Amino acid sequence: MHIILSNASPDPIYEQIRQQIRSQILHGDLSSGDALPSIRNLAQQLQISVITSKRAYEELERDGFIETVSGKGSFVAVQNPELLREKRMSLIENRLAEIVRDSIILGVSLEELREMLEILYKEV
Amino acid sequence: MEPILAVQNLSRAFKDFKLDQVSLTLPRGYIMGLVGPNGAGKTTTIKLIMNLIRRDSGDIFVFGLDNRTHQKEIKQKIGFVYDENYFYENVTLEEMKQIVAPFYQDWDERLFRKYLMDFDLPPRKKIKDLSRGMKTKFSLALALSHRAELILMDEPTSGLDPIFRSELLEILQREMQDDRKGILFSTHITSDLEKIADYICFINNGQVVFTNTWDKIREEYLIVKGPKELLHQPVRDLLQGIRENDFGFEALTDKTDKIKSLLDDRAVYEHPSLDQIIVFTGRRDGDVSAH
């Protein structure tokens, strides 16, 4: 698991942690059942307050990405495959929406965008 | 769970200074930073928690126990690290330990040896030959070796270099792996606290200005900057510590939604540092433009 915190980021620390763990789960770098460091251990290692790491975990738990078993610690939750696919799709959707907005501002047509996407998809 | 420390409406008047109705609560498992300018009442508050001076009114509960009626048992579990050097200068660390250890039922000699090693403290050195940072570390080693649960530190980082300060913060975070412990830490170097403090209590002129989790405080306040035309009365009423110059103004607000709906993108917004919050809430509105 990687977590890189930036003091220059406009996002608060707990949000940076939440996003990074979430994206590692969505990308499959972390899979169901993987153990996460304890809240206190995470705080110590990243040199942040316990409340901050606790908040990151609470939000991940609320969104169903991780589970905390008292006395055992926190784990990546068993992901419902359909739900996981939905989450992945919405991740892509959000980014595409940004690109569409930019395209409209810059006067790129849907046709041109489609072409670009096809070429890029084949190249990667 | 009972808070490890609860201070309620604590007051004490001196000739030229008054600690006025101070209340704060620290739950077990967390670090609280006590901040404020010099003379704000930080040391007085800590001395009262240690029951070293008399109060006029108010209550202090440590581990849920009244700190006057249960003074003896409470002090067995408090580690007190403070600014002024209270050791005998001419004895070695080892000798000093032999003086201190018998006072504590839970003294752990093995733990003490371990801390001396971890903190790079030479047991045969005389206390007067220690640097300031080493004295603080020694004081902390003594506190931790009697298995203190509440650690009270009065300005432990003042006068210390950044390397030592960061080492001290690491030591404290290591201690906080144990969720029964609590740390109250007074300082005017707020960058030390921004990283590791869970709670902040800000006192000024003997009164609590705010006390909350650092996360909440950070979210509640915004720095607002913009051209002076924006400063009509309804806006001014929402701002604190307004500072104007020839080119614009900057101020602090805790009415973030209202300010944003009034000024929207005509102003610039920034999340303040703890230092900025303290400076803006502590100063009077002023115009610094040339006349």
State the secondary-structure class of chain A: mainly alpha
What fraction, in percent, of the residue positions of chain A are helical? Answer: 55-70%
Largest sheet of chain B: 6 strands, mixed
In quaternary terms, these chains amount to: heterodimer
Helix and strand element order of chain B: EEEHEEHEHHHEHEHEEHEHEEHEHE
Order of helices and strands of chain A: HEHHEEHH
Report the helical percentage of chain B.
Answer: 25-40%
How far apart are the termini of chain A?
Answer: 25 Å
Counting DSSP E segments of at least 2 residues, the number of strands of chain A comes to 3
Spatial sequence of strands, sheet with the most strands of chain A: 1-3-2
Q: Quick one: biggest sheet of chain A?
A: 3 strands, antiparallel
Unreliable stretches of chain A: none
Shape of chain B: elongated
* Rg value of chain B: 22 Å
The greatest interface here is: A-B, 14 and 21 residues
Arithmetic mean pLDDT of chain A: 90
Question: Topology of this structure?
Answer:
The complex is a heterodimer of chains A (124) and B (291).
Chain A: H1 13-26, E1 35-36, H2 39-46, H3 50-62, E2 66-69, E3 73-76, H4 81-106, H5 110-123
Antiparallel strand pairs in A: 1-3, 2-3
Helix pairs in contact in A: 1-3, 2-3
Chain B: E1 5-13, E2 18-26, E3 31-35, H1 42-49, E4 57-62, E5 65-66, H2 71-76, E6 78-82, H3 93-100, H4 109-118, H5 132-145, E7 150-154, H6 162-175, E8 182-187, H7 191-196, E9 199-204, E10 207-213, H8 214-220, E11 222-226, H9 233-236, E12 240-244, E13 249-253, H10 256-263, E14 268-270, H11 274-282, E15 286-287
Parallel strand pairs in B: 3-8, 3-9, 6-7, 7-8, 12-15
Antiparallel strand pairs in B: 1-2, 1-4, 4-5, 9-10, 11-13, 11-14, 12-13
